[in-house]
Design goal:
It comes from Macrosiphum euphorbiae (potato aphid). InterPro entries: Acyl_transf_3_dom, Nose-resist-to-fluoxetine_N, O2_lipid_transport_reg. This is Nose resistant-to-fluoxetine protein N-terminal domain-containing protein. This protein is mainly α and 762 residues long. It has four domains: 85 residues, no CATH class; 166 residues, no CATH class; 46 residues, no CATH class; 404 residues, no CATH class. Strands 1, 2, 3, 4 and 5 form a five-stranded mixed β-sheet that branches. A hairpin with a 2-residue loop joins strand 2 and strand 3. Helix 21 runs parallel beside helix 23.
Length: 762
């Protein structure tokens, strides 16, 4: 090794050592030089932060050898400690606001006296760049709560701690092709930084975030100017540095708005009415108080019954056996919902500050990681189920009573059932969500979501949010509800043709399916989009900013394929029921083999597009994107056919298990609320998350539990009552049938005769 090379290594090691010890020592030197009374208008920071003490025999000093190298070592120590000291959270430039300048002087004076409030502000601030920067930890979040809890009156001045998260961008001067960094330890750090900035499967290290605790009178511009001054004094070799966004927040309570009061009033009134209805139900169910109840067929009685918690719990826990054997649908819904929650947990957590980004980077190279990375395909299962049920149930309905098949009523029925509970969740997002938590990233995560909801909530209620203002999507998972609603609008028309004009109906359904496949191909090819939503690290942090997400993943016309495959499956199942057709056992076994190959082949084939050496080809991407939804839909469709016809084998009892049936009835509300629960956790984090399979699975299990508990409450309080009201007002001739249906369902679980009257008493 050459002498120059050796000298560079020594310099580097010394800089690292001094970086660890210089911060504390220079803080002491700085505070000894500053008072509130003689603070000069402007003094360069180097006059406060000097390394003289390191040459005065301090216990922190590094003893240099008494030879010709002493001057060089001393110069290196001084230069390094000066750089380190500049990252202390002091705003001393004369360019800042007067109050900021004044309060900073007070802060430094009290810090010199070791006053608790000033010490807490200093303690809450990050002292240097994040530990493990090159391993992917780009956040040094300090101590958020310790900072914002500072409140003090000092010399007739009120000073409050303000938490500021500063973004520093480090840009390589030139772009070079990235390569594998495995077992490469002797390359330049800046070259490594440059490579990571351009690899989509790697986390960018060129943006670091450092937290400062400063007086509340210092705005983000003041802090930004301070940081710009620091960066100008840092030697920049092969890189350029700049200050990005500076986001500051205090502990000041947010102002309440008329929207907050309106939302809470609606919740309060509904809870009061539900309590009264439950009391009425329980009170009049006792034989000694039966004379207080209204007539069973009266609207008053039926409305009160609809809002009764006890009645809705009993409805939720009934397990009527149907002649169609479609209980497997419940299992598919529940399992798919659980996997979607797990996938969103990975998205939210891995898109937040984490300590070991290399975990994700290593994760992308694994074939088994496609269970998570290709998880978005699971949403197609819901489209398949929705299309299947729409076609099958509408065919059953029109077959029983062709004259009662009124298409506009189906649209009203769907809107009334979906919208009220949906509106409650959106109302929570727009009003109370931002007020129930805090954290370094609370405004960046939750605040941004609330801002989007303020702008585009009306597009959600009209179910057009996947086309209108998709860049302002309120509730990231809500695009699915809009897609499913659009597709349902076509279902009654197609079903009517299938029943009255079978040949025309079959042709129309086949043409629509073919058109959906071609549309997906065309959009992908013409827009040069990815074959599907590739959840790279950058996408995880802000999916809505991804072009493929907005142009391919959420529009209805590119997601229609599995829905119409589901409708075809519903048509086949309806014909099988009417003809009593039984599937040959050899066909069953061969179909199961093909189905398993299709499902797992679709799931794991996505690995090709995550390979580091993958070269984009628009035609290949478009062809894969157009066809892989067909293969997945075919595999799931066979599962529905097989299990519903008694050919499900060991899968059938799992999908038809009674607790799963109950939980599947909560999937809609769980779908609505799980995103908010996960967003709350990532918005309120105080330190970077350590990613591991165990931690992510543990969090996912908690998400599933909390999501279904919240869904249970939403279902009992809003969804079930609205369904009851819809039956009362939109089926005025069938009020008694509504009561009889409840009695029939309850009797199907073998309730004892003496208890039956009490359970069904109005």
């Amino acid at each position: 090794m050459s002498n120059s090379r050796c000298t560079d290594v020594v310099k580097c090691r010394l800089m690292i050592i001094v970086a660890l010890i210089g911060s504390h020592y220079n803080y002491c030197r700085a505070t000894q030089s500053v008072t509130a009374t003689n603070y000069p208008p402007y003094v360069h920071q180097d006059q406060y932060f000097r390394s003289d003490g390191l040459r005065d025999g301090s216990s922190f000093a590094i003893q240099a050898p008494d030879d010709g190298n002493r001057t060089e070592v001393q110069r290196l120590l001084e230069r390094t400690s000066n750089i380190v000291s500049k990252f202390l959270p002091f705003v001393t430039s004369a360019d800042v606001h007067t109050q900021c300048y004044k309060h900073t002087a007070v802060y430094l004076t009290q810090l010199d006296d070791f006053q608790l409030w000033a010490t807490k502000m200093f303690d809450a601030s990050a002292k240097f760049i994040p530990t493990g920067w090159f391993d992917g930890s780009t956040y040094n979040l300090g101590n958020f709560d310790e900072c914002v809890e500072v409140e003090v009156f000092e010399r007739d001045d009120y000073i409050q701690g303000q938490y500021c998260l500063v973004e520093i961008e480090i840009n390589p001067i030139a772009h070079s092709k990235f390569r594998s960094r495995k077992h490469v330890f002797n390359e330049s750090s800046w070259d490594t930084l440059q490579e990571l900035a351009f690899d989509p499967n790697k986390s960018m290290r060129n943006r670091i975030y450092i937290a400062y605790c400063v007086p509340h009178t210092c705005n983000s511009g003041d802090v930004s100017k301070h940081m710009e001054g620091i960066l100008r004094d840092i030697p920049q070799k092969k890189i350029t540095t700049s200050v990005g966004t500076v986001k500051c927040q205090t502990n000041t309570a947010l102002q309440w708005t008329w929207g907050d009061y309106t939302f809470l009033s609606i919740i309060g009134v509904s809870l009061v009415f539900i309590s009264m209805s439950t009391y009425y139900d329980l009170f009049t169910s006792m034989s000694s108080f039966e004379h207080f109840k209204f007539s069973e067929k009266s609207k008053k009685h039926l409305i009160l019954q609809s809002f009764s918690l006890s009645k809705n719990v009993r409805k939720l826990l009934t397990f009527p056996k149907t002649s169609d054997n479609l209980e497997c649908i419940h299992g598919l819904k529940f399992i798919s919902m659980c996997f979607i929650i797990v996938g969103h947990r990975f998205m939210f957590s891995l898109g937040s500050p984490i300590m070991n980004t290399n975990f994700i980077e290593y994760f992308y190279s694994k074939l088994e990681a496609m269970v998570i990375l290709n998880g978005p395909i699971l949403v197609d299962t819901f489209f398949i189920i929705s299309g299947f049920l729409a076609c099958y149930l509408l065919l059953e309905h029109i077959q029983k009573n062709p004259k009662a098949f009124q298409i506009p009523l189906f649209y009203i029925h769907r809107y009334v059932r979906l919208t009220p509970v949906y509106a409650i969740v959106i109302g929570f997002y727009c009003t109370m969500f931002i007020k129930i938590g805090s954290g370094p990233l609370w405004n960046e995560k939750v605040g941004l979501e609330v801002e989007r909801c303020h702008e585009s909530w009306w597009t959600n209620i009209l179910y057009i949010n996947n086309y209108i203002k998709p860049q302002k999507l309120c509730m990231i998972q809500s695009w699915y509800i809009a897609c499913d609603t659009h597709l349902f609008l076509t279902a009654p028309i197609i079903v009517s043709l299938l029943y009255h004009r079978p040949k025309i109906g079959n042709s129309v359904l086949a043409l629509i399916l073919a058109a959906s496949i071609f549309t997906t191909f065309f959009v992908t090819y013409s827009g040069k989009l990815d074959a599907f939503l590739l959840v790279h690290i950058k996408t995880l942090r802000n999916p809505i900013a991804n072009k493929t997400f907005r142009s391919l993943y959420i529009p209805t016309h590119t997601r229609a394929t599995p829905y119409y495959v589901g409708m075809m499956t519903g048509l086949v199942r309806h014909k099988m029921k009417n003809t009593s057709y039984k599937i040959n056992k050899y066909v069953v076994w061969s179909s199961w083999i093909v189905s398993i190959v299709l499902i797992f082949g679709t799931l794991f084939s996505a690995w090709w597009f995550y390979k580091p050496n993958y070269k984009y080809d628009a035609f290949v991407a478009a062809l894969y994107g157009a066809l892989y939804r067909i293969t997945w839909a075919a595999g799931v469709s066979w599962t529905i056919i097989a299990v519903s016809t008694g050919n499900g084998g060991f899968i059938e009892p799992i999908l038809c298990w009674k607790p799963v049936i109950t939980l599947s009835r909560l999937t809609y509300c769980a779908f609505l609320c799980h995103g908010g629960l996960q967003l709350y956790t990532v918005g309120s984090i105080r330190t970077p998350f350590h990613a591991s399979i165990y931690n992510l699975v543990w969090l996912s299990l908690g998400d599933i539990t909390l999501s279904f508990l919240a869904a249970f409450c939403l279902t009992l309080l809003y969804e079930s009552p609205i369904i009851g009201l819809e039956k009362i007002f939109f089926n005025p001739g069938n009020k008694s049938r509504y009561v009889n249906d409840i009695k029939t369902k309850i009797s199907s679980i073998n309730v004892k005769p003496e208890k039956f009257k009490q359970m069904t008493a109005p």
